[in-house]
Sequence to fold (522 residues):
Amino acid sequence: MISSPSPQPTPQRPRQRFSPEATYRSLRARLAIWLKPKDLGLIDLAFQFADRVHAGERRASGEPYIRHPLAVAELLATLRPDAQTIAAALLHDTLEGKPYQPKVLRTAFGSDITDLVEGATKLDRVTIKPQPWFAIPLLQRQFKQRLGYERHVESLRKMLLAMTRDIRVVLIKLADRIDNMRTLAVMRPDKRERIARDTLEIYAPIANRLGMGQWKGELQDLAFPYVYPIEAAALKRRVDRILRRQEGAIRRANERLADELADAGVRAEIHGRVKHLYSLWKKLARHDDNLDQIYDLIALRIIVPTEADCYHVLGLIHKLWKPLFGRIKDYISLPKPNGYQSLHTTVFGPGGHILEIQIRTRAMHEQAEQGVAAHWQYEGAREQPKPISRKGTPLSRNELRWLAEMRRWQERLSDLTDLKATLAMDFFSDRIFCFTPTGDVIDLPAGSTPIDFAYQIHTSLGNRCAGATVDGTIVSLATPLRNGQIVEVRTDNRQRPRRDWLTIVKTEKAKTAIRAQLGANP
Ligand code: MN
Fold:
């Protein structure tokens, strides 16, 4: 019933012969459950194309390259996406280092799939710059705050989303990350650490924002031992000890509960779940490292048919076992910002053993595990999770802005019939993110120019701005910038802001600074 979370990288697969055709056939059989024959034909073509492009190529592990895109497609298949997403997953690495391909791809598969593949390829540029103090865990928190690290990483996350015009690209990228993390052990140690850190700081938080609990947990637990090897191993040992000690009590609670629910005529599924190791580690840091204060290390999860059943079951549990004061949480009427819904309670279970119990419907469960992706499965006939309309915890200003985006997007999602239009919708249609030559990210409103970019960095840089280079090409100061461009500002100490700049710039910051300068030097 209970399985311990695995903090160690998945060991090498058993050395049976890998057959691309056999793997593809079993994937195809699963896709056939919800895709039409015409769609399957398209996916067949995508597989054959990828298989040809990657022929003879090998992964760092020595495996045939095609195993990787197949694994990415298999991961995505668990979300039941459309045919384009699966085809793009199979093709997602076919543009890597092959400059002639986009045209070929566009002719063969059309622009929808090609855009997805190009989007996924482009995102490989987003990475955290190595910092010397990474190596000193004790000092990290302090350094992170002082150096604006959190802001930097937050910008990277936003940029990653902004650079993609389509949420499906993010999903492909997350699946790509999971498979890369599963086979990370074969990489060079320094490369391993960088990839794992990007996973922990950029990709897992994005999965979390999208409400994808299962992928978030998997990404974090795969990356944790690479970024914090000593801490991960020590925590794993502690958790295993507790699991061994509590296994009997949990099993008894589970059996008792199953009897009780059967007597009451409630149809329910009960699972034990062990908290993901990395989120446990984060939580421990907030509780003086005291595992006794973590009541949800092991929880029982009850899945019932309806929302009314959830409250009914909560009542039955409280009759059976006394709840702990202040630990009953109703995330059904007050969902978490990412859409999470459940009832939580913590009780004195059999033998006074403290136990957390989570109660939810199947739809709530899928929302919790798959987040946004839960919305496009099973066309029609299913209970729609409520759009997010309330927040559970106080949020920072940045998070609130993000939340507003998510909410707007989710609300549209829940009442749109054209799923494709929804999924292809821009996340940040009104923001762009550009790089400085040293890799810092500058966040600007859409339509911003190199002058805005300069003022955003520093007023004095804006005031002396004489020209700009974008992605290595000299451009006029009036050129609108685009997502992901590298912008270099040329300065001249004799340069002064000009009146016509006021008509070019987009940001208030630039306008105010230019007016101040014009006023000072009319
Ligand atoms: Mn890949």
In short: The longest strand covers residues 354-361. Residues 68, 92-93, 176 surround manganese (II) ion (CB under 6 Å). DSSP finds 20 helices and ten strands in the chain. Confidence is low (pLDDT under 50) at residues 377-403, 410-428.
